[in-house]
Amino acid sequence: MIPLEFSTIFQTEIVLIFLFAGIVKGLIGLGIPMITLSLMSLFQPVPSAVVITLLPSFLTNVWQAFKGGKLLILLKKLWVLILMVPPGIWVGTYFLDKFDPPLFSVILGVLLLIFASLSLGGFTVQVPKGKENPWGFFVGIFGGVMLGMTGIFSVPSIFYIYGLGLNRDELVQALGIVLNTVTVFLAIALYQMEILYEKQLLLSIGAFFGTACGMLIGQQIRQYVSEGLFRKIFLCFLMVLGTYIVTNALNDLEVLTFSISK
Fold this sequence. Notes:
Structural class: mainly alpha
Largest sheet: none
Strand content: under 5%
Distance between the termini: 28 Å
Oligomer: single chain
Mean pLDDT: 87
Radius of gyration: 18 Å
Low-confidence stretches: none
Shape: globular
Number of domains: 1
């Protein structure tokens, strides 16, 4: 049993990282894993960083999912997608050792870059009215397969959610609903791998404090951002996310050889 001291829960660098990640998440609805894992890998082993990220990701996604007053309306559009993710994950993990996951990660990252670039250039993706659930069926299956094979759920789920024609607050709330599914399955996987270390879970409490403060700031900023500017910020972040995914995957494939952690 680790003695409860201030330093076992609050580490300045971790709280500040999650404060920044929380601001981004409060503003556009996503970004915690990418920001926190990339920055914490400078001084934390990646498995430990993943565990620390778990609690803030889950609680902020729950907060995000229930804030906005459109939960039932959005669930009617998203329930099929959410329902099809688990079987998709099962299929993806079955094929995990039959394909090269980093190669698929490169493809997913490139697709994010293409989607964001085209959308910034005026190209629009729109899910037909009344067809949300049929589209959600295929998006949920494909997204689950990619999550099972690569650990990435962004493609094509973000394309689908973006194409629902939601306003900024609805888009953020929809992301919270869907991302909760991913966080729950990540927690189950970490539990099965027996890497939910007590020390990292305690640090996760302090990390949530930073994230919550950041989210409050980000949510306030969002109220002063127009719909057009919000979408530009959101799409620019997708470009950053796509670049991050491609770079990491190329590093795994040893096409790029660099390391930011010891």
